């Protein structure tokens, strides 16, 4: 399949996911429950995973995409097992809602979404490099100093997701913190744990990329998809929090997630403008 065809497929899946999210929000606000519909649930949870696979294969290569997903999923799984056992890594003891498909007592959706969230954060951070037309740090450029900064940024971007998501999931009863905590009944250590899991995954991967750089030929504009996905996720959380009258959470969550999205989108528009402006010059040069 040609790169342009792959990009079109990725965009089509993204648009389908938007439709599914819109339907879920609309039905929820009308007071109906659609979570129990197996087909809809598979679409709602499965489309982001499919999008993750295809997008990572395009931006990283098939081999590196698989490696990233396995690394993120297994790291998340191991940390969840440890967290369920003694509560240290995430700052307290917690239990998941019963009647879920699990892997070593960890819901399978949680394992997969560690990969989805970490990859989204990794791409969002990378988008700033792309919009400035900079390559990821690599051994040829001798810019190892940049790697730790990107890793920390990855961690902060992913933690922002959980700052918004965790209180909603606790309110809905999808998991329970047994000892509670100061942040909407959630221990602060939970967010430290999320930061650690993320920087372990992206740290290992970014250092691997640094010493083994590989350039993929593809339309870099698809980096905007994880950026938009991150923004839509924040708005989806905001609407859900509004339904539960968690107004303080809306302020905290949107303040944590949206500024990064807005900045990336603005830089993307600048990137597109520069690309479009350069195109006529290239065409004239070819004619000469």
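Sequence proposed for the structure above (288 residues):
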């Amino acid at each position: 399949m040609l790169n342009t065809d792959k990009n079109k497929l990725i965009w089509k899946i993204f648009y389908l996911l938007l439709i599914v999210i819109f339907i879920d929000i609309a039905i929820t606000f009308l007071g109906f429950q659609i979570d129990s519909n197996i087909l809809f649930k598979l679409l709602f949870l499965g489309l982001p995973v499919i999008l993750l696979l295809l997008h990572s294969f395009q931006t990283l290569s098939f081999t590196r995409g698989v490696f990233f997903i396995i690394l993120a999923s297994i790291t998340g799984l191991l940390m969840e097992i440890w967290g369920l056992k003694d509560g240290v890594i995430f700052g307290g003891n917690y239990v998941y809602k019963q009647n879920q498909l699990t892997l070593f007592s960890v819901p399978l959706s949680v394992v997969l979404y560690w990969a989805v969230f970490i990859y989204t954060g990794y791409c969002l951070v990378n988008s700033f490099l792309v919009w400035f037309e900079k390559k990821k740090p690599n051994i040829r450029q001798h810019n190892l100093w940049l790697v730790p900064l990107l890793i920390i940024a990855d961690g902060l971007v992913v933690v922002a997701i959980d700052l918004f998501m965790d209180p909603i999931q606790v309110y809905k009863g999808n998991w329970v913190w047994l000892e509670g905590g100061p942040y909407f009944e959630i221990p602060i250590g939970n967010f430290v744990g999320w930061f650690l899991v993320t920087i372990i995954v992206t740290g290992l991967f970014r250092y691997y990329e640094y010493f083994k750089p590989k350039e993929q030929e593809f339309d870099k504009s698809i980096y905007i998809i994880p950026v938009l996905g991150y923004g839509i996720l924040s708005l989806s959380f905001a609407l859900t929090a509004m339904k539960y009258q968690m107004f303080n959470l809306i302020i905290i969550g949107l303040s944590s997630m949206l500024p990064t999205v807005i900045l990336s989108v603005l830089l993307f528009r600048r990137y597109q403008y520069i690309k479009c402006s350069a195109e006529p010059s290239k065409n004239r040069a070819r004619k000469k």
